[in-house]
């Protein structure tokens, strides 16, 4: 059972802890993380969500996940990268792209802290329950896909600024 800390829209813990499905059902704010991997070819790694995922199955997105109760945001980011694509990074490798992104929806309202890491390899070990495929995409292609409302992406136009900011971080 995955337990999550309930937070307010500013990210402050309320003292309540609930099971993930109940948090989603009641539409309570909780923390999630998102991590983009970027390389020196101006590419961003996207992962295709498994067909069995409840939300956004078979869609391309970043490495992402819920912050478990009592877990730190950075700790979650490192755990998710290792679990989903089999790579180990250190805290020094994590760079913050967005401190607190607020998503208010009818279901799964949450706060997201967005990170990026530099990685130039292709040595991935996929957690097939979560990820069916990974692929390096040219950052400009992803930006254009968002602008064209490409339905294969988890990112929509309200997240365009993230990819534009990410492009500026590329070496």
Task: Tell me what you see in this structure.
The protein has 171 residues and is an alpha+beta fold. The protein has a single domain, classed as Nucleoside Triphosphate Pyrophosphohydrolase. Helix content is 23%, strand content 35%. Strands 3, 4, 5, 6, 7, 8 and 9 form a seven-stranded mixed β-sheet that branches. Strand 3 and strand 4 form a beta hairpin. Helix 3 runs antiparallel to helix 4. The longest helix is centred in the middle third of the chain and has 13 residues. The mean pLDDT is 95.
Q: What tags apply to this protein structure?
A:
two-stranded antiparallel sheet; 9 strands; 35% strand; globular
| Proportion in helices | 10-25%
Q: Tell me which CATH architecture applies here.
A: Alpha-Beta Complex
Number of helices: 4
Report the portion of residues in β strands: 25-35%
Rg result: 15 Å
The domain count comes to 1
Low-pLDDT runs? none
Number of strands: 9
Structural class: alpha+beta
Look up the CATH topology: Nucleoside Triphosphate Pyrophosphohydrolase
Ends: how far apart?
A: 41 Å
Average the pLDDT over all residues and give the rounded result: 95
Largest sheet: 7 strands, mixed
Q: What is the name of the CATH class?
A: Alpha Beta
CATH superfamily: Nucleoside Triphosphate Pyrophosphohydrolase
What's the gist of this structure?
With 171 residues, the protein is an alpha+beta fold. It is built from four helices and nine strands; from the N terminus they run ββαββββαβββαα.
């Amino acid at each position: 059972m995955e337990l999550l800390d309930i937070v307010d829209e500013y990210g402050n813990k309320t003292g309540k802890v609930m099971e993930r499905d109940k948090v989603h059902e009641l539409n309570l704010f909780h923390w999630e993380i998102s991590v983009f991997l970027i390389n020196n070819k101006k590419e961003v790694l996207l992962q295709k969500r498994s067909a069995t995922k409840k939300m956004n199955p078979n869609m391309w997105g970043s490495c992402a996940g819920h912050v478990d109760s009592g877990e730190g945001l950075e700790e979650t980011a490192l755990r998710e990268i290792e679990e989903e694509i089999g790579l180990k990074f250190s805290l020094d490798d994590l760079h913050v792209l967005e401190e607190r992104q607020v998503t208010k929806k009818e279901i799964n309202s949450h706060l997201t802290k967005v990170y990026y890491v530099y990685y130039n390899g292709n040595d991935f070990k996929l957690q097939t329950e979560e990820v069916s495929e990974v692929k390096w995409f040219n950052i400009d292609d992803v930006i254009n896909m968002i602008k064209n409302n490409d339905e294969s992406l988890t990112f929509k136009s309200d997240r365009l600024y993230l990819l534009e900011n990410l492009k500026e971080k590329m070496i």
